[in-house]
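Q: For a teaching session next week I want to show students how multiple molecules come together into a single three-dimensional assembly. I've collected the sequence lines for a complex. Could you give me the predicted C-alpha cells for the whole thing so I can convert them for display?
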Amino acid sequence: MKKILNDPHAYVDEMLDGLCLAHPELQRRGEGGRVIVRRGGAVPGKVGIVTGGGSGHLPVFLGYVGEGLLDSCAVGNVFAGPRMDDCIDAMRAADGGAGVLQLYGNYGGDRMNFDMAAEMLALEGMQVASVRVADDVASAPAAQREKRRGVAGLVLVYKAAGAKAAAGATLDEVAALARKAGDACRSIGVALSPCVVPESGKASFAIGDQEVEFGMGIHGEPGIWRGPLKPADALADEMLEHVLPELALAQGDRVALLVNSLGATPAEELYILYRRVAEVLAGRGVTIVRPLVGRYATSMEMAGASLSVMKLDTELEALLAAPADCPFWSVR
Amino acid sequence: MKKILNDPHAYVDEMLDGLCLAHPELQRRGEGGRVIVRRGGAVPGKVGIVTGGGSGHLPVFLGYVGEGLLDSCAVGNVFAGPRMDDCIDAMRAADGGAGVLQLYGNYGGDRMNFDMAAEMLALEGMQVASVRVADDVASAPAAQREKRRGVAGLVLVYKAAGAKAAAGATLDEVAALARKAGDACRSIGVALSPCVVPESGKASFAIGDQEVEFGMGIHGEPGIWRGPLKPADALADEMLEHVLPELALAQGDRVALLVNSLGATPAEELYILYRRVAEVLAGRGVTIVRPLVGRYATSMEMAGASLSVMKLDTELEALLAAPADCPFWSVR
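A: Of course. Below is the structure for the complete assembly, covering every listed component.
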C-alpha cells in the first residue's frame, strides 16, 4: 500500500482533523466527530440539507457543506456508509426549524441508515424529506432507475437544491426541486486503475495494464464491458451514447456538464475528453452552460473519469448559477 | 501507457482546445496556438505578467492566467520549455504599455528562451523585467540558491505579484515584490510514483513499490534520499525540517502554506499531511494564513505531495488575500 497516511484505521479521522484545521468554517460534531457541519450551525427558517456517505471520495460528500450548498454531512469509513447515529446527529445539526432534506447517493447502507434516522426524527416531530440521486446509467437499465447508484451527478443536484433552500423555499419545494434535478441528470464512468482502501491495504479491484472498464462504479462495481483502452474521443462518444438518449436532448436545449476525474486522471486528460464532448454537443445544437472540469467526486487515487449531463430548464439553470461557497467549489 | 488521450503528439494541443472551450475567458494565440491569454487582452496601463513552461503540470502554468493573476502564458510540450517565439508572443500579448514582468520557474530551457525573448523585445523598446522563482530547497544548497528549481511556491508568487500589478504598481515595484515573495518562499516534495510522458509512452522515473523519494523534483529529478515510505507525520516533520530553517520563523510569525498533490495523491492524504504541519507550526507559535490544500502544481498522474511555506509581512499577506480569479482558483 503506497499511501501518505499514519495508522490506516485513523485515515478518516486524521483527514477530518486536517480538513477542519484548514477550513475552520467546517466543524466536526457528533459522537466520534463523524458529522461535519457549518460553523455557524443551522440557519433559522431555512430548510436544512443533510448528506452522507463513505469516505474516500473528496470533495464528495462532506466537501459540499457550505453556503448555498449543504448544511451537514454524516461521514462513514472509507467506502462504508455512515452510522445511523451520525445520520441523526447530522439531521439535528441541519434543522433550522423548516425541516430537513436528506439528499444522498443511492447506496444500500446509506439508504438503510438514513431511512431509520428519518423515522426516528419524524417521531420527534422533525419534518423530513428524502431524495436519493441515482444518476449512474451503467448500474441498471432505465426501467429500473430506482436501482441505479448515485455518482458525480450528485454534485449538480446538491448545487441546485442548496440554492433552492437558500432562496427560502419550503421543504416540499426543495425536495421536489432535488427530485427534478436528479431526474434531469445522467452519468457514466470509465475506470483505468483501482485505488487502495487503507484499512484493508488492498486494491479496490484488479484490471489489466492496457484495459479500461466502461461503466464501472466508483467502488469498482462491475460496468458494461472491459477491454483494451480506446482513444479519448471514442470513449467520449461511447459515454455520450449511454448518457444522452434518456435525456432526449433537442436542438436549442441547454445542459450542465461535469467531466470528473476519479482521482489520478489528470486535468489535462479531462480537457481532452471535454473537447470531444463539447464538439458532439455543439454538433447537435445543444449549449453547455458553466461546464465543470475537474475533481468533484473521486475514489482517492483511482484513475478514470466520469461524465455527467443535466438537462436544464430555466429554474435549474438559475439555481446552478446562484452564489455558493464551500472549501472545494465556489460559484459567484 | 494508460492515459485518456488520442494521438500522444496531440496531447497538448487537444488539452488546450478543451481548456479554451470550457473556459472561454482564455484564448489560444500565437503561431501554433501555444500562447494562452485572457480574452480581453492586455490591460492598458497595467504591468503585464507573463509566465511559461512545459505542459503536464496543470493548473501550472497556464491555469493561472486570469484576473489578479497572470496575463499570458507560453506553453511548451509536456515537460519541455516553451519556444522562444511563443515567449515573445506571450510578452506582446501581456503588454499594456506599462512593461512586462517575466515570472517563471527556474529551469534551463525556460530561462534561455525567456532571456532571448526579453533581449529582442527590449530592443523594440518594451520595458521588461524578469524574476525566476527557485523555491525547491532539495534542488541545491542555500549557498547556491540561484541553481534551485521552481516548484509549487510559484503559485503563491503569481498571486502576490498579480495583486501588486492589479493595484497599479510600476514594473520595478512588481518585479521587486515578486523577488521578495520568492525570497520568502521555500518548498520540498516527496514522490511515490511516476507519471507517463505521452510522447515517449514511458514513466518519468522508476521507483520501488514500497519506496518514496524525498526531495524529488516534479520531472523526477533526483532528491535527497530514497527509501521505504514513512508514516505521514514523519514525512511532514522531515519536510518541515528542510523548509523552515532558511525562513527563520519566530513565534508570532505568519505564513502562507500550500500542501500540494503532485497529481494522484488524493485530497484525503493532503489533509492528513496538513494536520501534522498545522500541529507543528502551532507548537512554534506560527500562524498559518489562508492555507491551500489541493492540486495547484502537478505532474499529471504522479503520486506524491509538496509543501510550500511563505513567510509573510503585512504587504504579502494583503496581496495574497486580494481578489483573484482563474479557472482553477478564486480568491474573494
